[in-house]
Amino acid sequence: MKSISARQTGIILFLTILANKILLLPSIMYEKTKADSLFVMMLLFAFELFILWIFFSLKNKYPNSSLKELLQKSVGGKIAKALIFVFLIFFLFKTMLTYSVIYVYLKDLVYQDEFGLLAIICFIPVVNHGVVCGLRAMSRSFELFFYLVLTGVVFCLVIAFFTNISIPYFFLSNPKDIFNTCFTHFFSFGDYLILFIFMDKIKFDNQGKKTILKFVGLGITIVLAIFLIFYCKYHDTAFMHNNAIADLLVFSVQFNAIGRLDIIAMVTIMALGLFQMEIFQYAFCESFVMVFPKLSLKYAIAVFDILFFIVYFVLIGKYEFMIMVTTNYLPYFSILSNYILPSIIFALSYKHKKELKHEKSV
Amino acid sequence: MKKVYNYFKKNPFVLILVLILIFFTPNSLFSPGQNRERAIVIAIGLDKIENEYELSLLTFIPTPNQEFKQTNSVVSGKGNSISEAIFDAQLTLGKEIGLSHAKTTVVSQSMLNQDISSSLDYLSRVVSLPENTVFICTNSSAKELLKATNSLEENLGLKLDQLISYNANDVYVADTSLEAFYQGYYSVEKSSLIGYIEYIKQDNSSSSQENSEQESQAKAGQGESEQGTKSMSQQSQTEQSSGEKERGPINGQSQILNNGQAVLLRKGKMVAKLDIDNLNSINLLDNKKSLESIKITDVNIEDDKNVDMVFIVKNKNVNINTYFQNNYPIFVADVNLGLKLTEVETRGQEIKSNTQFTEISQEMALKIEKKIKEEFYQTLQILRDNKTDVINVYDLFFRQNRKKFEKFYNNLQDKEDYLNNITFMLNLRIQPDG
Amino acid sequence: MIQNKVEKIIEKYKIEFHNSNDFASRIFNKGEQMVGMLFLKSMTNPELFSQTIYMPLQQCNEKIDEKTLCEKILKNNSIEIIEEKNIITNILDGKVVIFSDSFQGIVSVDVLTFPSRAPTEPPTSPVIQGPREGFVEDFKTNLTLLRRRIHSKDLVFKSVFVGNKTNTKVIISYIDGVANKKVVEEVERKINAIKIDGVVDSYYILSFLEKRPNSLFKQIGNTEKPDIVASKMLEGKVAIIVDNSPIVLTVPFILMEDLQSSNDYYTNHHYSSLVRVIRILGLMIAIIAPGFYLALQLFHYNVLPLNFLITIADTTQGLPFTPFLEILFIFLLFQILYEVSLRLPSYLGLATSVVGALILGDTGVKAGLISPPGVIITALAKIALYTVPEQQSQITVLQVIFIILGGSLGILGIVTGLVFVVNYLNTLDDFSTPYLAPYAPRIANDLQDGLIKHSINDMKTLPKSFPNNHKERSK
Questions:
Q1: Which of A183, B409, C240, C407 could disulfide-link to C249, CB 3.0 to 4.6 Å?
Q2: Is the pTM for the entire model greater than 0.95?
Q3: pLDDT tens-place string over residues C74-98
Q4: How many domains are contained in chain A?
Q5: CB contact under 8 A, B30 and C420
Q6: Straight-line distance from the first to the last Cα atom of chain B, in angstroms, rounded to the nearest whole number
C-alpha cells in the first residue's frame, strides 16, 4: 500500500488549516465578536485538536486498520456505512465551501468578472487528476509547494508590519457572543476529519507524532497571527475587507507607489484552495468507495463531479446565500460530523478493544 | 473516430487542453488586451454641482512612443448619482474604466457638506477603487485641480500623489488615504483628517501668493524644482486633447497650493480646516513626527535686544499618561524637546553666528514654551469645539484606564463630547541638542 | 564442376551475404591443403590482415592443422574457435573466419577496424575545469573510458544483443555491491524483452526502459561524459551503453540530476549552490514567463505596477497583433531561428544570429510589428531554457502549453497547470524512485547535493533517493 509519512501528514494538515480561514473568515467573524474573534478561533482550534487527539489514540491502538474495518468490527457493516456516509456529505460540502470562498475572491479581485466556466475548467480537472494520482503523489506535491505557500503567507504577514498597526481592543464581547460565533463557524472547521478517512495509509511513530504536531502548531500559529495582524491593521474597517490575506498587503500610500504586491497573495490563495479541494475530494472519494465498495474510485470522482455541478448552480456566486447556508444550517450538521461522530468512533474503539480482550481471555 | 475516442479515453487531460483550445483560446487570441480595453484611471475627482455629481478622471492615454512618456488627460462624466456619472464618463471615453491604479482621490469642499462616505462607498466597493489611494480635498473644483495637476506633471514631472505622500509622512498625523478616512469614520471617535490642497485660479500671473508659496515649498521640500521658488505650480492651463465634453478654454494662470493644510471630518462631514500650525501642535504628541521649527521673537541676548530666533526640533520624546483624579479624567503629555538654534536675526544689526548660543536661556525657554502651549491649546479648542478626537484620546484612555474610562464615558450626557470633559496638561522640557 | 569443402562454404556465405560488395573471401593453397577465409572488407584492417594472418600462413612450413594455426601461426592474435552457426555473427563483428578442408574447427581472428573518433569534449556539456573527455561511438573505447575511471573488480559490464537486423551490442554496466540488484535485474529484463528490428542509437532503447513511454517527461538519464557516468555508477545507478552511440543512459533518474552539472563538482560548492538556485529560477522563467506575461496583459492588468503598465500600453498601442498572437509570432520566430541555427553550417551561424537578433527583432520593433516587452519576455524565456539544456525539449513543449493556459485562462490557468504538472511528476516512480526527490518526498540525507550543495566531505553516505546498497561513501 502506498502510505504517507508523518511529515507529509503534517503538511496536509497545515495546508487544510490555512486554506479557508484566511480569506473571508476574519472579516465575517469581526462583525459579531470584534477582535475577540481571536479567542473564538482559539476555542475552535481546541476542538480541532480534540479531533487530532482522538485520531492519535485510535492510531495507537490500531496502527494498521482502516476506519471501515474498525467500524465494521464494532457496529457491523450497515451502521459503519451510515456513519461513513456522514463523512461523505461533510466532505462534499467542505469542498464546495472552499471552492466558493476562493471563487468569490477570484471573481472580485482577480478576474473582476463572471468567470464561472473558466473557474470550473481550471479547478475541477486538476482536482480530479490529483485524486486519480492518489494520496501519495498528492502529498508529495504538497510537500514541494509547502515552502512556497509558507513563504507567500509569511511575506504577507511581514509586509503588514510596514504599515500603521496597533493592537485592537480585546474583551469587548461577552462569552455568549463568543460561543455563538463559535457555533456559527463550526462548519469552517473539522478539517482534521480527513485523517480518519485514510488513517490506514498514514505511517508514523512517536517521533512522527511530534512532527505532525509541529506542523499543526505552525498552521494554527499562522492563522492566529493573520487574524491578529489583520485586526491590528484594520480595526473598525475589518468588515470591509473580505480577503484577509490579500488585504494585508494593501492599505499603505507608500506601497501604492511601489506597485501591486497582491499577486503573491493571489498565487498563494489559488494554490492553497486547489490543495484543499484536492484533499477534500480525495476524502470524499475514499469514503464513497467505503460506502459503495463495488464501485471504483473513478465512479466516485464522477459522482462527485455531478453533485458538484448540481450544488454549484444553487450555491456558487450567490455570496450572501453561501454565507447564510454555511452559518445557519451547516453548523448543526457539523456538530454531528465534527464532534459527535469522532467521539462515537472513539467510544466504539474502546468497546471493540474490550471485546478483543474478552475474546483473548476466553 | 474510434481511434480518437480511444486516445482521449487514454489521455483525458489532453481532452481538457483541447476544450480550452476550443472554448477559451479563440476569445483570448483576438482580445486586444485589458490595457487597451480599459481606461487606466490615475486620479479621480468628485464634484457636486446643484445635486448633480461630476466625476472627473485623470486617465492615461496610451500613445505609441519610445520615450515611455505618460500622456494623461482629464475626462469627466455627469449624473444624478455616482453610478450615472461613471456611466457617462465611460460613454465619453468609449472604454470601461479601471480604477485599480487610481492613486489619488480628490473631492471638492462642497462634497464635504454632507456625509461623503456613501459616495465613496460606491466607488470602493462596486467599482473597486483601491483603499490605499490618497484621499484629499480641495477648495473649489476637483476637476480643475486634476487638470492643473496634469499640466504640472507634464511640465515639472511633479505628481500630486508624491506631494501628498510627503505630507502624509511628515506633515499630517496619519496617512491621508481612503482607508484612513474609513478607519476614522467607523471608529468610536468618528473623526478623520484628510489632506487639503488649495487651487487658485487667477486671471493674470500675480505674485500675491508668492510668499505663501515660498513657504509651502519649504515645507513640502520641493524647493529644488526648476522654476526655483517662484512658480512651482504655476503654469498656463492647456487643454488636453481628449474626449472631454466641456471644451471651453480656461484662460489665465492657476496654482496648486500645498501649504500643509488639512480638513477635519466628523461623521464624513467637514467641520474645520486645520492649518500647518494646528497640525504641528497635534504632531507634538506623536513621537514619530519631528519636522517642526519654532520661531520666537523679541529675545534679549547679551547686548542685543529684540532678536528673532528659529529653532528646529532635533529630537523629541513624548510620554503620555492618562489617569483619573476624583473620577475625572486627566490627560498628561510630557514632551521633551531637544532644540537646535538654526537662525538668528537681529533687527538692523549685524547677524550673529548661531554657534555662539549653545545654551538655551530661561527667557528663550519660556518664550518657546509659551508659544507651543498657546498653539496646542488653541488647536485643542478646535478639536473640542468640533468633537473631533484625532489625537486618539479615547484610545489612550481606553487602553490605560479602561474600566474607569468606560464608567466615565457611559455617564456622560453627550457621549460624543468627551473631549470637553477631559483635562489636558502639557508639560514641556526644553533642552539644547547639538 | 566439383567443388571442395572450402569452396562450398565460401559459395554458401557469398549467397548469405547477397554478394555484398564488401564481403570478401580468400583461398590459400599450401600444397594440397586449402585454407579459406571469410571477412568483411569494410570492417577489417588490410594491413593487419596481411601481417597477422596472410604472411604467417605463407611462412609456415608445417602442415596446417587447428593446433598449428592457433598456437604457432596466429599466436599473437585474439583467436577463438567457433561453431559453424556463429560464422555470420563473427564476420559481422569484423573478424576473419578461417577454415580448411584439412581440419574440422573454424577459427575466428579479430582484425577489426573501423573509423572512430577520439574521445573529445562533447559539445552539449562543456566544462570550465574538469575532464574534457566524451564518449565516442565505439563501445570498446567507451568501456575503456569507464574502466580507467573505476579501477575495481566490481565494475561489471554485461552485454546483450538487441535488434533482429542490427544485432547491436548493449552493455549494462554497474558496480556490484553498490547498485541495487533489483534495479539491475529489472533493466536486464526490460532490455531482454525488447523486440525491435534495429537499434541505431541509445535513444531507441530508451523508450523501452521507461515505464511511461508516451510521457512528455524524461525518465531516463543520459550523458556524453564518462566522468558523469562513473560518478552516477558510484552512487549506485546502472549505465546502459549502446554500441555506436556516444550517449550513455543511466537509471534510475531523478529531475534533480538535470539541475546538477558536472561543473558543480569541479568548483567551489558555495558557487555551485548559487548556480543551482539560478538554474531552477531559469527553469521556472523558461516555463512560465511568456504565459504569465500574457495572463497579465489579458486578464490581470490591475496587478501590474502603473509604470510597467504604462510601458506596456505605450508600446503595444497601434500594434497590428493582439497580445496572444504577438507572443505566438515571436515564439515561432525564435523557434525557427533556433532550428535553423542548429542545422546551418557553422560559418553561417553568425549570419543567422545577426539576421535573427538584429534585423528581425530590432526592425520588427521599429516597424511597429512587435512590442519590445514581448520580445524581451520571449527571448528571456528562450535563453533561460538553456540553464538546463538537458530538459530543453520538454520545456519547449511546456512553454507552449503554458502560453495557451496563461493566454486563455489567466494566472489561475498557470497555477492550476503547475499543480497538475507537479502532481503528474509525483506519480512517476520508475525503479521505485520518486521523480522529484529529494524534495518531494523530502529526503534529508540527499539535500546535501540538492539545490544547496555541500562539500564532498560532508556527503558521508550514498544518496537515498533511489535504490542502492546504502553504503558509506566517506568517513
A1: C240
A2: no
A3: 776 778 888 888 888 888 888 889 8
A4: 1
A5: no
A6: 90
